[in-house]
Specification:
- The complex is a heterodimer of chains A (114) and B (117).
- Chain A is mainly beta.
- Chain A has strands at 3-6, 10-14, 19-21, 23-26, 31-38, 45-50, 56-58, 64-68, 73-78, 87-95, 103-104, 108-113.
- In chain A, strands 2, 5, 6, 10, 11 and 12 form a 6-stranded mixed β-sheet that branches. Chain A has a 4-stranded antiparallel β-sheet with strand order 3-9-8-7, with no helix packed on it. In chain A, strands 1-4 form a two-stranded antiparallel ribbon.
- Helix content of chain B is 0%, strand content 48%.
- Classes of the chains: A mainly beta (114), B mainly beta (117).
- The interface between A and B is medium-sized, with 26 and 26 residues.
């Protein structure tokens, strides 16, 4: 069965620090990969996605992620975080089949100190 | 607001009671998903519909849970004889029809939080 593992459960950074959140998935076939973000009091929203092509994908608000197929990883990065990036971040995967069903990791809570 | 809407936002009930949640997806989305999220965990897939057809149900969905989407628009999730372990956030999401290259890009509602006393 597919699964997604996020290594960091709670990350605390100061503003302007660099961010990298780890995500590994287990699935042998073709996958589509996502990062979703949930700001305090808001609904889950898409941050970025990888379907095919360039393994380095850019999303909203300066976030990017790199798909490394050999490592089954899709880590999220941002060079310089802001206080407004405080949120919960979820990595998710779906296979290339037709269901569109997402399997989520357990999430990483990011707290950015001003 | 043309996003996914869920109702009620909060529900407190006593163990053994039945509860029903409603989800109104984005109007042009024919796929609708239900997820459950507990504290400190990511959303867990429960079931999904394409139009009015329920195409997949998770093993997490016990016999006490039933979901419907009778006209292919809004959906309801009913939990019968609630248990304390059912306390969670129930999330609804919708997506565009398959073939549009955007599978997996789900649009979520704000969720319905259930507390079973």
């Amino acid at each position: 069965a597919q699964s997604v593992s996020q290594h960091n459960h709670h990350v605390i950074l100061s503003e302007a620090a660099s961010l990298e959140l780890g995500c590994n998935y287990s699935y042998g076939g073709t996958v589509n990969l996502f990062w979703y973000v949930q700001y305090p009091g808001q609904h889950l929203q898409l941050l970025l996605k990888y379907f095919s092509g360039d393994p380095l994908v850019k999303g909203i608000k300066g976030f990017e992620a790199e798909f490394i197929k050999s490592k089954f990883s899709f880590n999220l990065r941002k060079p310089s975080v802001q206080w407004s990036d405080t949120a919960e971040y979820f990595c998710a995967v779906t296979n290339s089949g037709n269901t569109g069903k997402l399997i989520f990791g357990q999430g990483t809570t990011l707290q950015v100190k001003p | 607001d043309t996003g996914v809407s869920q109702d009620p936002r909060h529900k407190i009930t006593k163990r053994g009671q039945n509860v029903t949640f409603r989800c109104d997806p984005i109007s042009e989305h024919n796929r609708l998903y239900w997820y459950r999220q507990t504290l400190g965990q990511g959303p867990e897939f429960l079931t999904y519909f394409q139009n009015e057809a329920q195409l997949e149900k998770s093993r997490l969905l016990s016999d006490r849970f039933s979901a419907e989407r009778p006209k292919g628009s809004f959906s309801t999730l009913e939990i019968q004889r609630t248990e304390q372990g059912d306390s969670a956030m129930y999330l609804c999401a919708s997506s565009v029809p398959p073939g549009q290259g955007l599978l997996g890009e789900l649009f979520f509602g704000e969720g319905s939080r259930l507390t079973v006393l």
